[in-house]
């Protein structure tokens, strides 16, 4: 955010420059009145009136032009800030999403939009105009000290009203923003799970949670609006009163022969210039408060999810995976899920990972792919700490089929090609490797079939098989499949077995998490996880034997226990 602010500094100087010229030119109406009343009317010269009027018209045209250019510079300033921030912000949202399982949705992008609106709106202009108030005040003091005092008190009273307005509405407005953001997030979540909600008749109960946020937000917004409306009516009335009163004061000063009639009118116009930025602030206060809150939230995201250390540039890996005393869990989580994991998996080995639910199998998958960092110890790919690899460079060497396969809006070919430039041959090769080529050809538009977000018209099994092709795209050296056969029929299982065979031939290291014996029959080694620790790891048959012996031991122990219980 700091560097974006620096980048905008140049444009801000331009805006300040335009504001300077404008504020000088905005003395035109006051000077025109002064000349008309004190020179034209006393001299009766029509030629002077014409010349003065022509000059005033010209200056007003210049004022209009300058206002237009200044507004344009502000829009460009807001766009420049957006350009600077949007990409790092997207990356930071992504990093935070990895840590917080979903993060805050698109909220930060809305924050950026409200910051942009705050910049391009009138509040910043009002700030630059406020800087000129002392100049107008000085002129009023020169006319007559009473004028100066009156204008100063008038300006301060209006300012006090603005500050009160800010204080009275800030809490409500910020609260309303938060509630409305939560309500949007809940509504999106409900829509995503529409089928389950409909099937189980959960809509009315789950809608209640969304509605409570929405109602609280609305209530807070109305409270803020009520107060703001009261204060802005008060401000408007006060402004009108002050504008009339200064004419009264001026008339009295004329009667006292302290100022001329022209000064009386010019004084009223100058008071308008003193009060106008305050008026503008009142008008744009909401967007100022919203932009300030948005700025703070954006700063917080960059603080919470700072960019990673510069990555190392390394040669392409061969697929040796080593875990050295690794303890890990979700980033920011207090309790580790995996503890004391030591593993060494040679390139080309196929390892099956089994264990009861919540044993930490998917956590291990995220860990070896570098999605979650190790709290302790180190995960190495070909000897290099996986956390230090450049993700963009490492990605093509890795394949991952997550438990919940997520396909993105785009064609099947784009999804398989991981949204890089589609190379038809490689897409087909990956589909063939995953045994899904024929299935794709049977779809209405083959590889060009368009998928809606989440996979659209595909069944869960089809999504899983296309997800497998995406994992095998290119030449990955390490592939991790998390429950790859959870939704597969017999043909899908067969295709998976063939894909595993192809990976073995190509010397690709494979980790496959599964509860089904069909897949596990083909692996070289088995890793049994239990409560976040390695319970057994070794050649498949030996591990299966040990598991059988353990089961037998447990059966005998419970059998004896039962006998004891029966004896007693
Ligand atoms: N994003 C997350 N944030 C916090 N805790 C998590 C997260 N993901 C998983 N966990 C916790 O980590 C533990 C292990 O989960 P994991 O998904 O690794 O288990 P698993 O062995 O793959 O289970 P299953 O066979 O049911 O898929 C669970 O207790 C779970 O609550």
Automatic annotation (TrEMBL):
Which positions fall inside the ABC transmembrane type-1 domain?
Answer: 13-290
Q: What is its main location?
A: membrane
Give the UniProt subcellular location, in the record's own words: Cell membrane
Ranges where the record places region Disordered = 547-568
Read off the PROSITE patterns from this record. Answer: ABC_TM1F, ABC_TRANSPORTER_1, ABC_TRANSPORTER_2
Residue ranges annotated as transmembrane are: 12-35, 47-69, 119-139, 145-163, 237-255
Q: Which UniProt keywords apply?
A: ATP-binding, Membrane, Nucleotide-binding, Transmembrane, Transmembrane helix
- Record keywords: Zinc included? no
- Annotated ABC transporter domain ranges read 321-556
- SUPFAM superfamilies named among the record's database cross-references: ABC transporter transmembrane region (SSF90123), P-loop containing nucleoside triphosphate hydrolases (SSF52540)
Coiled coil (residue ranges): none
What is the topology of this protein in the membrane according to its UniProt annotation? Multi-pass membrane protein
A matching Pfam family: ABC_tran
Looking up InterPro entries in the UniProt record yields: AAA+_ATPase, ABC1_TM_dom, ABC1_TM_sf, ABC_transporter-like_ATP-bd, ABC_transporter-like_CS, ATPase_T1SS_PrtD-like, P-loop_NTPase, Type_1_exporter
Q: Which PANTHER family match?
A: ABC TRANSPORTER TRANSMEMBRANE REGION, ATP-BINDING CASSETTE SUB-FAMILY B
Q: What is this protein called?
A: Peptidase
Q: Write the lineage as a comma-separated list.
A: Bacteria, Pseudomonadati, Pseudomonadota, Gammaproteobacteria, Oceanospirillales
């Amino acid at each position: 955010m700091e560097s974006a602010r620096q980048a905008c500094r140049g444009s801000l100087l331009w805006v300040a420059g335009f504001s300077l010229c404008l504020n000088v030119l905005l003395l035109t109406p006051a000077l025109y009145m002064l000349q008309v009343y004190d020179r034209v009317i006393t001299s009766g010269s029509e030629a002077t009136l014409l010349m003065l009027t022509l000059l005033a018209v010209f200056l007003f045209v210049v004022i209009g032009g300058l206002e237009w250019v200044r507004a344009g510079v502000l829009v460009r300033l807001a766009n420049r800030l957006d350009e600077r921030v949007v990409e790092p912000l997207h990356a930071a949202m992504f990093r935070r999403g990895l840590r917080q399982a979903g993060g805050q949705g698109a909220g930060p992008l809305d924050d950026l939009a409200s910051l942009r609106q705050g910049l391009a709106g009138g509040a910043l202009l009002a700030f630059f105009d406020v800087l000129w108030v002392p100049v107008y005040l000085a002129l009023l003091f020169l006319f007559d000290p009473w004028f100066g005092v009156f204008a100063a008190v008038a300006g301060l009273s209006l300012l006090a009203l603005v500050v009160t307005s800010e204080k009275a509405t800030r809490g409500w407005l910020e609260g309303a923003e938060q509630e409305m953001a939560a309500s949007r997030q809940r509504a999106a979540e409900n829509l995503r799970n529409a089928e389950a909600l409909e099937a189980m008749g959960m809509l009315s109960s789950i809608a209640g949670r969304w509605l409570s946020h929405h109602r609280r937000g609305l209530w807070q917004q109305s409270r803020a609006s009520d107060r703001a409306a009261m204060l802005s009516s008060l401000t408007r009335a006060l402004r009108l009163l002050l504008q009339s009163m200064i004419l009264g004061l001026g008339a009295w000063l004329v009667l006292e022969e302290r100022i001329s009639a022209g000064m009386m009118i010019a004084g009223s116009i100058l008071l308008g210039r003193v009060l106008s930025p305050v008026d503008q602030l009142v008008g744009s206060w909401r967007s100022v408060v919203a932009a300030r809150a948005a700025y703070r939230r954006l700063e917080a995201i960059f603080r919470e999810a700072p960019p990673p250390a510069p990555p190392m540039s390394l040669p392409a890996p061969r697929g040796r995976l080593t875990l050295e005393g690794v303890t890990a869990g979700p980033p920011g989580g207090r309790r580790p899920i995996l503890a004391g994991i030591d593993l060494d998996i040679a390139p080309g080995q196929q390892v099956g990972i089994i264990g009861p639910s919540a044993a930490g199998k998917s956590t291990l998958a995220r860990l070896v792919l570098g999605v979650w960092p190790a709290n302790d110890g180190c995960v190495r790919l070909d000897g290099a700490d996986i956390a230090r690899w450049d993700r963009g460079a490492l990605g093509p060497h890795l394949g991952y089929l997550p438990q919940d396969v997520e396909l993105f809006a785009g064609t099947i070919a784009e999804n398989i090609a991981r949204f890089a430039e589609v190379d038809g041959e490689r897409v087909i090769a990956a589909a063939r490797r995953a045994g899904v080529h024929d299935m794709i050809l049977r779809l209405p538009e083959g590889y060009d079939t368009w998928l809606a977000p989440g996979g659209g018209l595909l069944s869960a099994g089809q999504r899983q098989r296309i997800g497998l092709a995406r994992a095998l795209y290119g030449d990955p050296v390490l592939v991790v499949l998390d429950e790859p056969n959870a939704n597969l029929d017999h043909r899908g299982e067969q295709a998976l077995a063939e894909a595993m065979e192809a990976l073995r031939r190509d010397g690709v290291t494979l980790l496959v998490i599964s509860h089904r014996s069909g897949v596990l029959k083909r692996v070289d080694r088995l890793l049994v996880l239990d409560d976040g620790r390695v319970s057994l790891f070794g050649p498949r048959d030996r591990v299966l034997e040990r598991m059988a012996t353990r089961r037998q031991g447990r059966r005998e122990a419970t059998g004896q226990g039962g006998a004891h219980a029966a004896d007693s």
